[in-house]
Structures are given as structure tokens and as C-alpha cells.
Amino acid sequence: MVSVLERKLTIKRVATMVSNYQDNASTDDLESMAQGCGRNCLGSCCLPVSKLPLYAFNTDEEEQGHDKVDASCDGKSPEKSYLNNLLLGQWENRMTRGLFRYDVTSCETKVIPGTYGFVAQLNEGRHLKKRQTEFRVDKVLQPFDKNKFNFTKVGQEEVLFRFEPSEDGKTSYFPCSQIDPEGSSASVVAINVSPIEYGHVLLIPRVLDCLPQKIVHDGLMLALHFAKEASNPFFRVGYNSLGAFATINHLHFQAYFLSAPFPIEKAPTCKIMSSEDTRVMVSKLLNYPVKGLVFEGGNKLCDLCDAVASSCILLESNNVAFNLLISDCGKRVLLLPQCYAEKQARGEVEQELLDTQVNPAVWEISGHMVLKRRKDYDDASEQYAWKLLSDVSLSDERFQEVEKYVREAANLQEDGDFTSTEETSYGTGTPQVSPHLPQDCLVLR
């Protein structure tokens, strides 16, 4: 099996540049090609009169053939990894066109020795080239502000394709599809111009509805289908709430390929609650520096979605910041409440950690450490990763409140066989790697 990271070595380094559209620049050439405002953006001025590629997925979970794609461009039926290949091909196309702020394929990456195998990446200067946060970090729910940067200002050249439910019960790909101005708002997959890994993209549900960064059921369902359709265990989808290092207050999920198990996926778990009706069960992470809950099961995908979404919505209403990791092709969702930004604001984070300028969002919490300084990369150790992430985690008391919110929101019952377990001490657990993750294809550049 050829790993994703092996494929990176085939990409030639290209000159990098800031996207024309995200820099709010316009030229006569762009204006002549565009419709609406003249910038060919994702706003209501241009998008309703545009044609974009469309990946339409089947939502019928009862039909076993949902993963077969009708490629309407040539009448053939590709394999179920069609979305996976489509995304990689389009992402590499944008790479060669110079639409990224830097060449992420040149960043050094290594596995840190230790029990869990934290992955470290050296990405010098990303914090200078990445868009800065433009809102308060102490409020999880904040209204959408059209005057601040949002994805309606992104140029359509950064969009890989639309990703939406099909209308005919089939999974199909249309290379050029007219957007229905009278239909529901388009959901799109676009490149992250400040990537941290190969194939790093953004999933933006209902872009024209200008939803703030908060969980809604249909948005989370779209993200679960995205992970499921990719059909690749090394493709994960993540979410950061406000207050948990989301930098843009416009609903979006992130996703990328990393051909290695995330350390958090190796952590042992203990089942603590479940539902007899929906068969959703929730487990607690053990022997990991960040306390978290793992949702899985369900009679249908919508059962899993409803349990996670309802829990997140209640956390948001109680101003609890959190991150989500969608793993195992959409079969597992990890809910990770955190308080690092809150501790920063109160001056409770050690200067040594602040100097690293690492903002522990979903990827860092999951074990992929994006480091900004050569010194931190060269000295990276499992102890360092553990220390940083321990500052992210809630106290035992606050985490018990989160468990209560989840039990209430998702209508779950405590598991009858569950006996209270304290967090096991560092380094004493035996990691259990997900059976969905092949263990023989880790190749880091």
C-alpha cells in the first residue's frame, strides 16, 4: 500500500502566494472572467449565477451501494474511493497554481519516540502567514459579522467542488453544475490556504446562509458524510469552536490526510453511557493528557449525529469551548472540551509554553503537533507534548459537568457495568489502536 505521505514526494515545490481573493485584490483579468461583483467570489453576488463541480452523495443509509459513484462526465462507475481521489487531484491542482500561502510539503515531519507516537511538524512562520483571530475568545457563541473575514469573500478558484446530498438517491459527480439560485444554499469544499498537511481542506456548509461557528445538526451530518464518502481511515475531519482556536466565525470544518494513527486514536477508553433505543454509546478517554468523550454506534448515521450535535449545542449554550475529531470514516466522533484560551487570558499558562506560540486546536489535541520554532521541533519529546496538552484539559469537576450535559442532551443512560475510573497515570496504559487503521504504512517525509 502506498501511503499518502509517500505521494507527497511526487509534488514539485511551487512558488507560493497569497490568494488574490483573500487579499481582496482585483484585476481587469479577474473582472472580465467573473460575474456578479466582478471577483468571482462565494458571495450572494456571484455564487447563485455560477457553475461549480458537484459531488452529490446518496443519503439512503439502507442501500448498500451508496459508495458507488456515477461519474456523469464519462458514464463510468469509479471505485468507492472516488471522492478521495477527486479531492487529492484537485488539491494538487491548486498547489501547482500557487494558491497556498506556503509549500506545506516542504515542512519537516517526524514521529516523536514514545508510547503514543505524537507526530511533530516544523512549520516556521505559519503563525505570521495565517489569518489572525478577529473575535473574542471568551464567548463560544457570537453572531456572524459580515464586516469581518468570512468565506463569502473567498474566490471560486479555491473551491474544489460542491458537496451536497443527491436528489435522485445516487452518488454522482458532475464536473460542471449550475447552482440553483432558488434552491438551498450551496455547501462547498475549498482549500485551506494555510495548510498544515497534505490535502488540507475546508468543508463549508450552506455558505450563503452565513452561519456563525456553532454546531447545527445538518452541518455536522454533512461532515460525517464527508468522512464516510472519502472512505479513507487516514482522512479525518475536525472542528474547532470559538474559544477553542477557531479563527473564523463562519461555520466550517477542516479535514486532511495523515497516514499515521493519531495518538488520541490509540488511547484506551471505558464505556460510561449509552442508549438502548439508538444504540449510541459514549466512552471516556483514559491515559491521555486531554479528557474527552468518544461517541460511536447508532442504528443509523443520523443517530450518531443527533447525539453529538445535541451535546455540542448544550455545551455551547453553557459557554464550554470544545473541539471535535471525526475518525474511522465517520464511525467515531471524539468530543474534546478545553480551556487553554481561557487559561491564557487569566495568565495561568507557563511562559515556556506561551513562547512556543502553539495554539492547541483539534489537530494538536489529537496528537499532531504543529511547531513554529526549530528549537521546539528538535527538542520535541512525548513529555513536552503531554505537558502542553495537559494544560488544555478541563479539571475533574468541570469535566463531570460536561458528562452531565452530554447525558442530558443525548438522552443517554449511565452504563450498568461502569465503575468509576480515575485518570490513569502517564505512561502506564496500553494503547489500543483502532482496527480500522492499518499499522504498516507510516511513511513520513
Q: What is the topology?
A:
Blueprint: H1 4-8, H2 28-33, E1 51-57, E2 69-71, H3 82-96, E3 109-111, E4 119-122, H4 126-129, E5 159-165, E6 171-178, E7 188-191, E8 201-204, H5 217-230, E9 235-240, E10 253-257, H6 263-266, E11 269-274, E12 280-285, E13 293-297, H7 301-317, E14 322-327, E15 332-337, H8 340-345, H9 351-355, H10 362-366, E16 368-371, H11 374-378, H12 382-390, H13 396-409, E17 413-414
Parallel strand pairs: 1-5, 2-6, 4-16
Antiparallel strand pairs: 1-6, 3-4, 5-7, 7-8, 8-10, 9-10, 9-14, 11-12, 11-17, 12-13, 13-15, 14-15
Helix pairs in contact: 5-7, 7-13
Overview of the structural elements:
With 445 residues, this protein is α+β, with helices and mostly antiparallel strands. 24% of the residues lie in helices and 19% in strands. The protein contains 13 helices and 17 strands. It has helices spanning 4-8, 28-33, 82-96, 126-129, 217-230, 263-266, 301-317, 340-345, 351-355, 362-366, 374-378, 382-390, 396-409; strands at residues 51-57, 69-71, 109-111, 119-122, 159-165, 171-178, 188-191, 201-204, 235-240, 253-257, 269-274, 280-285, 293-297, 322-327, 332-337, 368-371, 413-414. The strands form 2 sheets. A 14-stranded mixed beta sheet has the order 2-6-1-5-7-8-10-9-14-15-13-12-11-17. A 3-stranded mixed beta sheet has the order 3-4-16. Residues 1-34, 63-68, 70-79 and 418-445 have low confidence and may be disordered.
